[in-house]
Amino acid sequence: MSKIFPNKGIVNRIVVSKGTYAIFKKEIKGFLTSPNFLLVAALTATIMSWVFPNMLRMFDIQAKSAQFGGAQGPSQALNIHYGLFLRHLSYVNLILIFIVPALTMKLFSEEKKLKTFDLLLTSPVTSAQIVTGKLLAALSAVGVVMLVTLLYPISTRTFAEFSWSTLLVAYLGIFLVAAVYTSMDLFCSSLTESGILAYVLAVILNVFIWFIGMGVDVVDSSLARAIFEHISLNQHLSGMVEGTLRTTGLIYFSSLIFLFGFLAERVVESARWR
Amino acid sequence: MIKVTDLKKLYGQQLAVDHISFEIKKGEVVGFLGPNGAGKSTTMKIITGALAPTSGIAQVGGFDVFENPIEVKKKIGYLPETPPVYSDMYVFDFLNYVAQLKGVESQKLKAQVDMALEKTQLTGVKNRLIHNLSKGFRQRVGIAQALVSDPEILILDEPTVGLDPKQVSEIRHLINQLKGYHTIILSTHILPEVEATCERVIIINKGKIVAQDSLAALTKLRSGREKVFLSVRRSEGVFEGLKQLPFVAQVENSKESYQFEVTIQNQETDVDLLARWVLDHSHGLIEIKPVQSNLEEVFLNLTYGQKTEI
Ligand SMILES: Nc1ncnc2c1ncn2[C@@H]1O[C@H](COP(=O)(O)OP(=O)(O)OP(=O)(O)O)[C@@H](O)[C@H]1O
Ligand SMILES: [Mg+2]
Question: Which of B41, B47, B190 has the most ligand 1 atoms within 8 A of CB, as the residue to mutate?
């Protein structure tokens, strides 16, 4: 890296370095060998194996009644993307709210508790590079769990026709939501020495950011409504479930991810200013 | 190599380092000596870039620690008070990780890790989980991680704390071996450690430097005069007789009546005179030797001595 960017000013500003890669690799290995991660993945699979068949049965009943009663119910209900996958994604979201914090809680708090934080602070990496390495590792771990949940909708392919691209865009949407949680929860971990506290804080923040969108249904003024619609994760996600990618959505998700990444970087840097 | 100018650190209202200045040349081995809470660790953290000073400048190899942190950190291997080890990692993997983090090139990685393992005699446990190692071995892993990037400068905060006597001497031996290859700063409150490993001492007390000099100079610091220990067979009249001698400044009778501590003006020739006087007066000379005012005395005088004066 330093050969490619001989100017140290540039190297300093850059967010990714050899050090970032070293941190990323170490954390990935940490996830793969920790019972915590396996437990999270297994738990997710267990919940999904229980919930998904139920959803499938409900969808089946709906589909049948729609067939018999002609075009009664909303035609959307017949669509597998609305009738099944949207519901599936709302469950995935619910699971994410609780499992992303479990994956991120130790990433910084443990370093502070074990005093290994000094090692990072005295290594030739910037705070931004440290946060990036940890964030990418956490995103990969979250990604693996999400792949587990993706198996369920894919399995319906054996008896139902659906559009691959729509499903994938929907999954990109929920992954972006997960990335927002990850960034936020990593920030929570940077705030405290206690993993438990980081977990609780992260869940609260996740629930808050998800439910803040509910303001849409509560307020009257059209301006406030527009604002709530814009900051609602759900609003942006539902567009993607239909299979449409909107730049506003992408920008909104990425700016949240960046914002909390930046806040975490500030907290890491502030450790030097005790 | 390391230059610190007017360094000050406040933790909130707590003054930890109070306008410290010193310079350390390439290849020197310097000991930071001071009682608990003197500010040794704080000073080290500032030099390594783990902590920002409230005011003052720290420079390493010509770079300001806070303007060019990356350049500075590449040069430094640091062992904090608590060895920064991940208990859920294997010794080898951990050192490999630290080497990568410190920017060791991938071709050199294996050789560097092996070198660090060898120097700290950890090769036998390289495939063990750090969690299962004893405290002393963990401390050694801490030293190994400081060494693994083959840094120009080693900063070791109490490197032998918590080790058994055999390991303490091994670590001191290691530090002595590292002399010449690295510039070394180590902190300690154990005096023999400084005496065993350092060429120069910086004594810190309550955030201030109270003395800094070579070991030899500091030991002589007490005064220009020297003390000798004298032991004779027949002690009648010796005490009074010694007092009369022109080159004797002070005589103290030790517990045993035939032993004396004689303070003389100039050791080189006066010891001869003293010996001749004892022989001439047939007091029966048993032993005559210089009393080293050891570092311990200097240290206590400089640090705790101050307190009693206030
Ligand atoms: N994080 C902190 N917050 C507040 N005060 C601190 C902090 N760290 C150190 N201090 C205070 O700063 C002073 C110097 O501490 P420092 O750890 O540098 O001493 P030391 O010389 O290393 O002592 P020891 O020999 O016990 O390791 C002490 O009075 C200590 O209480
Ligand atoms: Mg200390």
Answer: B41
